[in-house]
Specification:
The complex is a heterodimer of chains A (388) and B (88). In chain A, helix 2 runs antiparallel to helix 4. In chain A, the strands form eight sheets. Chain A has a five-stranded antiparallel sheet, covered by helices on one side. Chain A has a four-stranded antiparallel sheet with strand order 2-3-1-4. In chain A, strands 12-14-10-26 form a four-stranded antiparallel sheet, with no helix packed on it. In chain A, strand 24 and strand 25 form a beta hairpin. Chain A has 388 residues and is α+β, with helices and mostly antiparallel strands. Chain B is mainly beta and 88 residues long. Chain B is built from one helix and six strands. Chain B has a six-stranded antiparallel sheet, with no helix packed on it. In chain B, strand 4 and strand 5 form a beta hairpin. Chain B starts with a helix and ends with a strand. Classes of the chains: A alpha+beta (388), B mainly beta (88). At the A-B interface, helix 2 and strand 2 of A face strand 3 and strand 5 of B. Strand 2 of chain A pairs antiparallel with strand 5 of chain B.
Chain lengths: 388, 88
């Protein structure tokens, strides 16, 4: 039924009123001339019926023969709609073309988002995906996401474990998982002793296997036995064990480092700034001299945002730096900062109780001396040498 | 459709109507389809008279409307209260 209504609407029909004369003859002549009339009703001495737009033109002769008068009450259909809005045809066609363009542009990728990576920067990841075909302006139906995701993992030299590219509309999301190196668990079962690797006062002592020789509160020197791997059995025989445990000890630690006063730095010699218009992946510079600027370039794109999606138009600010080498002096604060960074890598597993440091300077160098009192893990494994 | 096709379609030989006996199909008292007609004799809100060659077929009721009609068939819908066959 609804299909019939749609069909009739596309074909266009009119509701007519037939009055005066012989209305029955009118209906008979219509059926004889193969003019389709439907929904014929009788109202107040006249007939209302629906007739197709094409057949309406043939009613003139029938009207004369039957002596009736015809009045058009309503017009429905695409033909009448077009006639009514004929003068606005360019507006309508423009709307249709704009919708088609929008649908076409939606098939391109204009926005790429990178999520999940903590070690690699967005630009590094996008550089690789660009080589595989994913960049602003890529035609999405021709881009194989699965294949590109599989190939991209090989281009990162093992720094990522998994990469997936998903496209939704005009937005592509690149999900990355960094590679996590797992610590290997050694299953070393060689018989060994556990000895102290520096002088100190034992704070905590936990023995997992072996015979404990040092207790909490005892002082030990470098090389002293903490856990013995030699165990005497009840029957007098000797067993050799793999000693293992956790010992912590308080000790004093000294550190001295020197830094040169003068340092080589790169300072900007020439800075050039120019703007360009960013339009659907194309960058149009507004400065004609931009091609002549040499140096390292940094670009910042300002794109308007619509419900979390960046639109593919905006303004790009390009800054071109030209550097030169220069010599400058270290400041004391920089020296302390550099010293702390180096010490952190050695002391990150220690608990520092007290510390003090001293900075001395000469004409050419800064020297930093630091004294710590800290609690560290003490002990290392030493293989048992059996005498035959 | 092309003019030649329409010309061919219209010139196809058809059986003369006198060989077709009228056939009436009633769906409750709501709809009646009559085949083998010659034309409509009278049409008002309460009465439709149809010429069926040998006799005249009268349908009485109210809100009677012609749903569709062609050269030799007609479909009447509405509330039919009375059916009569009258001689010519």
């Amino acid at each position: 039924m609804s299909f019939m209504l749609l069909f009739r609407y596309f074909k266009s029909f009119a509701v007519i009123k037939v009055y005066d004369g012989f209305t029955e003859r009118f209906v008979n002549l219509c059926s004889r001339e193969r003019i389709q009339l439907w929904d014929v009703t009788y109202e107040a001495k006249c007939i209302k019926a629906k007739v197709y737009c094409k057949d309406f033109k043939k009613l003139k002769a029938i009207r004369k023969k039957s002596g009736t008068k015809i009045k058009v009450l309503e017009k429905h259909g695409l033909t009448y709609l077009y006639r009514k809005h004929k003068e606005r045809r360019f507006l309508i066609s423009g709307l249709v073309v704009s919708v088609l363009i929008m649908l076409l542009l939606n098939m391109f990728i204009w926005n790429i988002e990178v999520i999940g990576s903590e070690t690699l920067s967005k630009s590094q990841i996008l550089e690789v995906t660009e080589k595989l075909g994913l960049k602003t302006g890529t035609f999405a139906p021709f881009f194989d996401c699965n294949q590109a995701g599989r190939e991209a993992v090989n281009n990162f030299d093992g720094r990522i474990s998994w990469l997936a590219i998903n496209t939704k509309g005009s937005k592509a999301t690149v999900e990355v998982r960094d590679f996590e190196k797992k610590e290997e668990i050694s299953v070393d079962k060689m018989p060994c002793n556990y000895i102290a690797d520096f002088d100190g006062l034992i704070v905590d002592a936990y023995t997992f296997s072996g015979v404990q020789k040092a207790v909490s509160g005892s002082s030990v020197k470098r090389g002293n036995l903490l856990i013995s791997g030699v165990s005497e059995n009840e029957d007098g025989s000797i067993s050799y064990l793999h000693s293992d445990g956790i010992f912590t000890a308080v000790h004093n630690r000294n550190s001295e480092k020197s830094f040169t006063i003068k340092k080589q730095v790169k300072i900007p010699d020439e800075i050039n700034i120019y703007y360009s218009i960013y339009f659907f992946g194309i960058s149009i510079p507004l400065d004609l001299k931009s091609a002549s600027y040499n140096g390292e370039k940094l670009s910042y794109t300002c794109q308007p945002n619509f419900s979390g999606n960046a639109l593919p138009v905006g303004i790009k600010k390009n800054v071109v730096y030209k550097f030169k080498q220069a010599e400058t002096d270290h400041k004391a604060l920089n020296i302390v900062d550099a010293f702390s960074t180096q010490e952190y890598s050695q002391l990150k597993n220690s608990r520092i109780i007290t510390f003090d440091y001293e900075i001395n300077s000469t004409r050419k160098n800064y020297s930093v001396t630091a004294n710590y009192k800290c609690i560290d893990f003490i002990g290392e494994k030493s293989e048992i040498v059996k005498e035959n | 459709m092309s003019k030649n096709y329409l010309k061919f379609k219209n010139n196809l030989p058809t059986l003369p109507n006198s060989h077709l006996e009228p056939m009436i199909e009633l769906i409750s008292n709501r709809e009646a389809t009559i085949e083998g007609i010659d034309g409509i004799v009278e049409y008002t809100d309460n009465l439709i008279s149809i010429n069926c060659r040998c006799y005249i077929f009268n349908l009485q009721g109210f809100n009677l409307s012609i749903r569709s009609n062609s050269k030799d068939s007609i479909t009447v819908s509405g509330c039919i209260t009375d059916i009569k066959f009258a001689s010519k």
